[in-house]
């Protein structure tokens, strides 16, 4: 089709939305602090936007089906109501019960319906154009990731390169948190939540009361979105952040000084988890373990190729079985698919990434064998401990509950940038890369 034959109204919609996205990016760039990360902005921003387009193309021509298109079609059903009766659309948007268009939806589980509602909002701007809507999802994902990366860079000034590599350029994080997927909205919300919480506890500058109030509102909104889309991330991240916040408060008010901050965090985290299990019958340990094992069995049944599964040994809903299978969950959850495993292109690419993680950990193990490394003063060790709790628990339970390797790569994106950032920060690899690039007179 020639440009002349293309409808003018569609051209104007496309041009208007592209300019608006670029405007949003420009405003984010201008309002960002002058840090070492800022030189990565436009390249990382462009990669994120086009990764969303690439994801849509992969689903269209390689997978030929997938939740990205079914979620979008459901969102169109919501936004179509807005063009006819905006009041009714608002009722649908904020309704928690049965909705009038429920029978016409392709996805009926609560998380997918909530995601469709979110997607219907940019649909109003894009006039229900999939490719333009995917730009808005990618932008929101990038917005949260950028905010979080800048906050971490402020707290760990020496590690801007490691943070950039982990949050902007790590392949699975870049690809699977772009476009129209629940992961795009969830990672944006997770990163924004962490950024706002850390900025609230460790402000870089004095904030006005309205800024603090706005931060608290957005924190609560992010918690709601994470709960609705990825409740298992909510179940681990919120206790970690709450325990970390309380520990910082105790330190500033000189409370329980006889106990180290690390021990305070462990006690508080354990107490919060215990209180949650006692507060509601659906949160007790027995029901949680039963749900975990049932999810494992369901996913195993739905996976046609058993070689794409993590095969656990007699996984049962009890503590002994979970503990027994934890080492396998950690090892295979991190390092599969192995480089020698047969499979499609996605599996091969994932195996390269998992091999990189394995090499990185082996290098770190050798590097940390030098005892002088341990004598270096740590930067915000409490935050590091909270991160390790979050990463470790999510790694174990996601591997146990979702043993399909392909799905696991997607689900892990909620913690993987933090894991990679920590591994790179300990590793000598970024220093080697910096020396090499400086030797070649490239700008870092």
Structure description:
With 444 residues, the protein is mostly helical. It folds into 2 domains: 40-229, no CATH class; 284-444, no CATH class. It is 74% helix and 0% strand. The chain contains 20 helices and no strands. It has helices at residues 8-31, 41-63, 67-84, 86-94, 110-126, 130-155, 160-169, 171-176, 182-201, 209-229, 231-252, 261-279, 285-302, 319-335, 345-368, 371-374, 381-401, 405-411, 416-426, 429-439. Mean pLDDT is 87; it is low at 371-379.
Give a short summary of the structure:
The chain has 444 residues and is an all-alpha fold. Helix content is 74%, strand content 0%. The chain has 2 domains: 40-229, no CATH class; 284-444, no CATH class.
How much helicity do the residues have? Answer: over 70%
Q: How many runs of DSSP E, i.e. beta strands?
A: 0
**Count of separate DSSP helical elements:** 20
How many discrete domains? 2
Q: What's the SSE pattern? A: HHHHHHHHHHHHHHHHHHHH
- The coarse silhouette is globular
Q: How big a fraction of the residues is strand?
A: under 5%
